[in-house]
Amino acid sequence: MPRRTSEDRKDQILDAVQRVFAESGFHATTTKHLAEAAGVSEALLFKYFPTKERLYSEMLTRVCAHCAKDREQWLQLPPNTATLAILVHHVVKNLAGGPRPDDTGSHLKVQNNRLMLQSLLADGAFARKFLSLMSTSVVDALARCLIAAAKGGDCDSAPGSLAEARVRSWSALHVAMSAMMYRLPEVPAIDYQVSDRQLIPRMVRFSLRGLGLSQAAIDRCYQPDAMAVAGT
């Protein structure tokens, strides 16, 4: 078996500590616990990361880098009503949707969501960094699409400015993020009494109406069954 390189070892440690920090938060986690989770000695842990603060910082930077890469494609989509429906569906599905057995990234998504909550309960550093990325990618993309939808006559209540479109876009995100927090426990805090297949389209339609789209535009552009087939 080939020996691990320094970068391989660092990646192994960062993968392991992300789960621990997500479950326990920064202050409640000891370096001994982190080393055990990574399968290394504390001495080796400190060789790569001189302090717990340094380890935590690099872990957060790594998480945000992955998120930024995933969201670069959002700004490349054409701003229109159809794109708006797709983006809102994607946001709700990924934030509010429960983990799926066939989704290999589900555990990572849950860890990221827990990191967000732990950050909000502490100094908010990760939350600010993550939401700053959301602001310049997801929120910007939603706002541009909403402005385009209004110009195309697809809004009952058109935003009066880009700033107003951004506020509405954040509000749509808040709906999905709130549902995500209630579903973080192994037994969700809220039983919606419907399947994700029913819940997600309802939340999406609610959000699209809140953004200002007309019902006719939603009926025309939002086709959740077709999106499911396409894997959106």
Can you tag this structure with a few keywords?
mainly alpha; 232 residues; elongated; Tetracycline Repressor, domain 2; Arc Repressor Mutant, subunit A
Give a structural overview.
By secondary structure, the chain is an all-alpha fold. It has two domains: 6-50, Arc Repressor Mutant, subunit A (Orthogonal Bundle), CATH 1.10.10.60; 71-230, Tetracycline Repressor, domain 2. Helix content is 71%, strand content 0%. It contains eleven helices and no strands. The chain has helices at residues 6-24, 31-38, 42-48, 52-71, 81-96, 106-121, 125-151, 162-182, 196-211, 215-221, 224-230. 28% of the residues are buried.
Shape: elongated
Q: How many β-strands, per DSSP?
A: 0
Largest sheet: none
Low-confidence runs: none
Radius of gyration, rounded? 20 Å
CATH class identity of the largest domain: Mainly Alpha
Number of domains: 2
Concise summary:
The chain has 232 residues and is an all-alpha fold.
SSE blueprint and pairings:
Elements: H1 6-24, H2 31-38, H3 42-48, H4 52-71, H5 81-96, H6 106-121, H7 125-151, H8 162-182, H9 196-211, H10 215-221, H11 224-230
